[in-house]
Design brief:
With 148 residues, the chain is mostly helical. It has a domain of 87 residues. It contains six helices and no strands. α2 runs antiparallel to α3, α2 packs across α5 and α5 packs across α6.
Length: 148
């Protein structure tokens, strides 16, 4: 059984400061949107999805660090998943001009980013609300793929 530490480590304090800065930036973004209007949709939506998904993973890592319930490797995995969530959303923002074209052909990297976004969303949902949403998504029958 692990002992719960009442004193935060330097890494824990830095992580808490980084998490506070992340959420302060999210609040600042809301104020910016309220005062000056929104960005175009393919910029605005990935920003909010990135903050939501990345924030969920970072909060999970911070909680595990505070309570000492998970190992350093597991916390590193949480942080990596949070960074991946931000990376997928950044990919959408950087490719928004191509995605907004009605005749776009999605390449392998686009499909990988989309699949990664879905998997990260399901994992974040599992951590936050339990197994209900991932199981509900799994129960959805996928349409048959055309044979080429």
């Amino acid at each position: 059984m692990r002992q719960l530490s009442t004193e935060a480590s330097p890494w824990g304090r830095r992580g808490a400061q980084a998490l506070g800065a992340l959420f302060a930036a999210f609040v600042a973004l809301h104020f910016y949107n309220a005062l000056f209007g929104q960005f175009e949709p393919l910029v605005q939506r990935p920003i909010f999805v990135g903050f939501g998904l990345g924030g969920a993973f970072f909060l999970y890592a911070a909680q595990a660090s505070r309570t000492g319930t998970r190992s350093g490797l597991e916390r590193a995995l949480d942080i990596t998943l949070g960074l991946l969530a931000f990376g997928v959303c950044l990919y959408v923002i950087l490719n928004r001009d191509r995605f907004s074209d009605i005749m776009v052909r999605y390449g392998p990297m686009d499909k990988i980013a989309g699949l990664l976004a879905v998997l990260l969303t399901l994992e974040a949902a599992r951590r936050v609300i339990g197994w209900f949403l991932p199981l509900l998504a799994r129960s959805k029958r996928l349409p048959p793929q055309p044979v080429s």
